[in-house]
């Protein structure tokens, strides 16, 4: 059984086993764990409100709000960092600046240092890489 949590264009839900799923075009529920559907990038502009809204939806569905922490946000960030559009690159960088964990995306950030669509994107990527490396040395 799937508890649907979103009424968006691509419905997202969670199974009784706690697996995040989305309603695929074919009409069945597909795992978000084993795939990275492109709609995941749309999480990024929501920023910190995303987890708060997701917790509210989980509570309304009678599920523990802590399940929000298991949503595959890393897939959203990775998509944004590798997306060819500057908007999504910047949204992913903004997320990492706000929420941290840039160290998990060093290959993508290093690529953006050279290929980012704007000077702001390239400089932000460079700053995040530098900070992640300094943190790893500490």
Description:
With 138 residues, the protein is α+β, with helices and mostly antiparallel strands. Helices cover 47% and strands 10% of the residues. It contains five helices and four strands; from the N terminus they run ββββααααα. The chain has helices at residues 49-60, 73-82, 86-99, 106-115, 119-137; strands at residues 2-4, 12-15, 20-23, 29-31. Strands 1-2-3-4 form a four-stranded antiparallel sheet, with no helix packed on it. Strand 1 and strand 2 form a beta hairpin. The mean pLDDT is 90.
Q: How much of the polypeptide forms β-strand, as a percent range?
A: 5-15%
- What spatial order of strands do you see in the largest sheet? 1-2-3-4
DSSP strand count = 4
Low-confidence stretches: none
**Rg, Å, rounded:** 16 Å
Percentage of residues in helical conformation: 40-55%
| Shape by Cα distribution | globular
The secondary-structure class comes to: alpha+beta
Largest sheet: number of strands, sense, barrel closure: 4 strands, antiparallel
SSE string, helices as H and strands as E? EEEEHHHHH
Instruction: Give the overall pLDDT as a whole number.
Output: 90
In DSSP terms (H or I, runs of 4 or more residues), the helix count works out at: 5
What is the straight-line distance between the termini? 46 Å
């Amino acid at each position: 059984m799937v508890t649907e949590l979103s009424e968006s264009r691509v419905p997202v839900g969670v199974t009784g086993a706690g697996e995040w799923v989305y309603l695929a075009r074919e009409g069945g529920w597909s795992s978000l764990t084993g795939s990275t559907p492109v709609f995941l990038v749309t999480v990024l502009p929501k920023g910190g409100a995303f987890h708060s809204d997701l917790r509210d939806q989980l509570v309304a569905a009678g599920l523990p709000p802590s399940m929000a922490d298991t949503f595959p946000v890393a897939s959203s960030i990775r998509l944004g960092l590798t997306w060819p559009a500057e908007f999504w690159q910047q949204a992913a960088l903004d997320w990492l600046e706000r929420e941290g964990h840039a160290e998990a995306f060093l290959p993508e950030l290093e690529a953006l240092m050279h290929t980012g669509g704007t000077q702001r994107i390239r400089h932000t990527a460079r700053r995040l890489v530098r900070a992640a490396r300094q943190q790893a040395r500490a």
